[in-house]
Amino acid sequence: HAPAMPSARQLRLAASAAGRVASECVRGLGLAVRRHPPTAVSATDEASFASPTCLARRGGGGSAPARNISGIATGREDNALERPPLPPFDDPVAAAMKVRYAEDMWNSRDAHRISHGYTHDTQWRNRGEFLRGRDEVEAFLERKWQREHCYKLVKQLWAAGGDRIAVTFQYEYCNTPDAADPDALWFRAYGNENWEFAPSGLMRRRVASINDVPIAASERRLTWQGDRRPDDFPGLSYWEHED
């Protein structure tokens, strides 16, 4: 069958993804020419959160609600919230931007803010745990980061189309808040996620399968300072032949 012509929404997304924003997102996913590998191990996990630079702007008229940089609607009820880029995700650049935005949010470890990227009735399977709704998601994330310290995450687009995105990811964490503790136990988690989105761009379904591997502190890969992964820090493609 001949490919369908792009819709007006797809064209707006593609246009908004051009230039610097698109190059940052693609580079951040490890798809462009790679720069230096990480050389230093972070001694502390800084608490500052840098706003994501890979947020697409929604096209259209002036009736759209005002948004802050996180995409959260301001001055409206929660049910008016939208989180661009919006589906369909047939444009890989827009899908990559959605993945990078999710990575930035999770690296903030702000459970309440993260939960608002999901629909009120969102459905999750995370490992062997099943969750329903934002309140359960927020409580789960709070528990998660009480036991996973010095958390660093990298996500990468695997496939996308329509209202669905598939993602592969790795994150590293230890069992103590002090990353410099010589007795700290370090782990690297390998995972895959399937995402399904509502028309608002909020995620209504998340299915995640994850395995943890013990590592030595010297084997850490995700060693940037602060929360957000710098745009020139390697993505998962950098290590694809090492596992």
Explain this structure to me?
This protein is of the alpha+beta class. It is built from 5 helices and 6 strands. It has a 6-stranded mixed beta sheet. Helix 2 (20-28) crosses helix 3 (92-108). The N and C termini lie far apart (38 Å).
Question: What can be said about this structure in brief?
Answer:
This protein is an alpha+beta fold and 243 residues long. It has five helices and six strands; from the N terminus they run H-H-H-H-E-E-H-E-E-E-E. Helix content is 23%, strand content 26%.
On the 0 to 100 scale, the average pLDDT is 77
Assign an overall shape.
globular
Quaternary state, please?
Answer: single chain
Low-confidence segments: 1-6, 10-80
- What's the story with the biggest beta sheet? 6 strands, mixed
Alpha-beta classification: alpha+beta
- Radius of gyration (Å): 18 Å
Please report which band the strand proportion falls in: under 5%, 5-15%, 15-25%, 25-35%, 35-45% or over 45%. Answer: 25-35%
Could you give the order of the helices and strands? HHHHEEHEEEE
